[in-house]
Amino acid sequence: MTHSQNSTQPIYPASLAKRMLVGAAIGLSLIPALLLSVDHPSTEWVKLWMVRPLIIVPLAGAMGGLCNYFFVHFHKPVGVNKTIAVILSGVVFIIGLWLGIVVGLDGTLWN
Hints:
By secondary structure, the chain is mainly alpha-helical. The protein has a domain at 50-111. The chain has helices at 13-35, 51-73, 75-78, 82-105.
């Protein structure tokens, strides 16, 4: 009788949190460039219009870091080459960050 091996891999919270924090930091470092480019905000915008992008974009970056962790950490059980997993996670991160910027600036800079 043979023993079946459990192919599930554990999730390491410290590594996951690190990637999510790096993704959030990337988002938080990119959004001020767009926010500081506004000299005279429109009177139609609410008073604290900058808060929404400053919250949504780092959250999108953190979710991109989460996707990066899962793509890279679980590439072997799925049967994908690590290089392909890294490239795919980078593309997903960039698209997610771009969508976070669009959602965060919707109604203000992009109407």
